């Protein structure tokens, strides 16, 4: 009988919790009554959110007295408190027009094209600050960063978005073996003013089929009117192996518990099968065998045909890696001369990898200007030069590693 009462209390409590949260539906439109697709609806203070469909309709779970936040690109956001009604329709007023970079570097009104645009600061992490963006950085020094916008679109082809730097579309390196950087990696981080992520059919239409996976717009810093400014930055980073792979040290190389034998000058020698890429050979028991370097009389005459004990090596994996050091320096100068704004920057990044003998050195040079020739005519231009030098670059594919 007590169990029946307990189940009854639990059912009542569960029912109260269930009915406390209700389904809220409605529509999001602009001031002209046009539906706004892809508008965001967020329950303030929670992780519950929704997007409007092509007709501007949405559905979301919310409790009474919770606040719904409505927003859409190019429109002012608004908040509505949930009451008794389960239908909430909102109208978002248009935001002030803002100039945005279009195809071929032509300035156009941001609201002239109905795309989804989200901005991030120069130092922000795209994966954490922009919805739907995922980043994956390769482990190799100077390697590219794989960026996907709103998930993987194809299995066999590239999912990389188009990179546009100051209005100029750049080639994007992709694939499993492309570990030598991409267009975005050629930009000095100190030269980035802002990053804008575009997604949606209308946005990618500006750049044709190349923008099918989305577009990332990088805007670099330029000279500004005012006094001459000089900015100098330096930094140092250290890198160490956090967790080394656990390897067994009971068996040697090979795939058989027995040594192979070879007859040299009438004497039998045990040899290991180094050509087999496995670590399940004979057990380490200090057996005498002939190592690979004992076969060449001209190369190592003092070790020719001399056997050594079969035992686990002392130079384990954790002793192989070193401490990586990265040193970065940059300087930029901005100045205004007779209505012409100039900016010059020079950056250098030198990295010594955790793998011995690996090294990366990258030098960035940039110069840009903008000048107002008249009230209707403006001239601007720039140049960016990158020199990258690598010593013994590593690959994700183990057979290609040094």
How would you sum up this structure, described in words?
About 8% of the residues have low confidence. 20% of the residues are buried. It contains four helices and 25 strands. A five-stranded mixed β-sheet has the order 10-15-16-13-14. Strands 17-22-23-24-25 form a five-stranded antiparallel β-sheet, with no helix packed on it. It has four domains: 74 residues, Immunoglobulin-like; 122 residues, Ferric Hydroxamate Uptake Protein, Chain A, domain 1; 93 residues, no CATH class; 56 residues, no CATH class. The chain has 402 residues and is mainly beta. The longest helix is centred in the N-terminal third of the chain and has 19 residues.
Summarize this entry quickly.
This protein is mostly beta strands and 402 residues long. The chain has helices at 2-20, 126-129, 201-204, 317-320, and strands spanning 21-30, 40-43, 49-51, 57-63, 67-72, 75-81, 90-92, 99-101, 107-109, 116-121, 133-137, 145-149, 162-165, 168-170, 192-199, 215-220, 229-239, 260-264, 267-271, 287-289, 308-310, 324-337, 340-352, 359-372, 378-391.
**CATH topology heading of the largest domain:** Ferric Hydroxamate Uptake Protein, Chain A, domain 1
Low-confidence stretches: 10-19, 97-115, 174-178
- The second-level CATH architecture of the largest domain is Beta Complex
Order of helices and strands: HEEEEEEEEEEHEEEEEHEEEEEEHEEEE
CA radius of gyration is 31 Å
Count of alpha/pi helices: 4
Number of strands: 25
**Domain unit count:** 4
Strand share of the residues?
35-45%
Mean pLDDT: 77
Distance between the termini: 74 Å
Helix coverage percent of residues? under 10%
């Amino acid at each position: 009988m007590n169990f029946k009462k307990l189940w009854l209390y639990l059912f009542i409590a569960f029912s109260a919790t269930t009915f406390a949260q209700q389904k809220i539906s409605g529509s999001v439109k602009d001031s002209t009554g046009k539906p706004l697709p892809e508008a965001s609806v967020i329950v303030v203070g929670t992780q519950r959110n929704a997007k409007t469909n092509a007709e501007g309709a949405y559905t979301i779970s919310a409790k009474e007295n919770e606040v719904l936040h409505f927003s859409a690109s190019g429109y002012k956001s608004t908040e509505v408190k949930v009451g008794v009604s389960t239908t909430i329709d909102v109208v978002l007023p248009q935001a002030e027009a803002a100039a945005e970079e279009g195809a071929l570097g032509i300035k156009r009104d941001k609201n002239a094209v109905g795309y989804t645009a989200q901005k991030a600061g120069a130092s922000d992490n795209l994966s954490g600050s922009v919805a739907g963006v995922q980043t994956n950085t390769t482990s190799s020094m100077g390697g590219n960063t794989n960026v996907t916008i709103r998930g993987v679109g194809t299995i066999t082809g590239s999912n990389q978005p188009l990179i546009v730097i100051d209005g100029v579309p750049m080639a994007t390196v992709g694939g499993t073996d492309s570990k030598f950087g991409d267009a975005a990696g050629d930009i000095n981080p100190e030269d980035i003013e802002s990053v804008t992520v575009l997604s949606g059919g209308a946005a990618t239409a500006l750049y044709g089929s190349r923008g099918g996976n989305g577009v990332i717009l990088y805007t670099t810093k330029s000279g500004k009117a005012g006094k001459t400014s000089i900015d100098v930055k330096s930094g140092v980073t250290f890198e160490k192996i956090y967790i080394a792979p656990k390897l067994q040290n009971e068996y040697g190389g090979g795939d058989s518990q027995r040594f192979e034998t070879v007859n040299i000058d009438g004497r039998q020698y045990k040899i290991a099968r180094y050509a087999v890429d496995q670590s399940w050979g004979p057990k380490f028991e200090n057996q005498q065998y002939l190592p690979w370097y004992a076969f060449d009389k001209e190369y190592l005459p003092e070790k020719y045909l001399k056997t050594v004990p079969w035992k686990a090596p002392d130079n384990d994996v954790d002793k192989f890696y070193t401490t990586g050091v990265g040193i970065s320096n940059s300087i930029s100068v901005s100045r205004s001369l007779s209505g012409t704004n100039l900016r010059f920057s020079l950056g250098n990044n030198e990295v010594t990898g955790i793998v011995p003998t690996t090294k990366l050195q990258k030098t960035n040079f940039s110069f840009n200007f903008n000048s107002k020739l008249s009230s209707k005519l403006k001239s601007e231009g720039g140049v960016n030069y990158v020199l990258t030098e690598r010593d013994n670059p590593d690959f994700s594919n183990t057979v290609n590693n040094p």
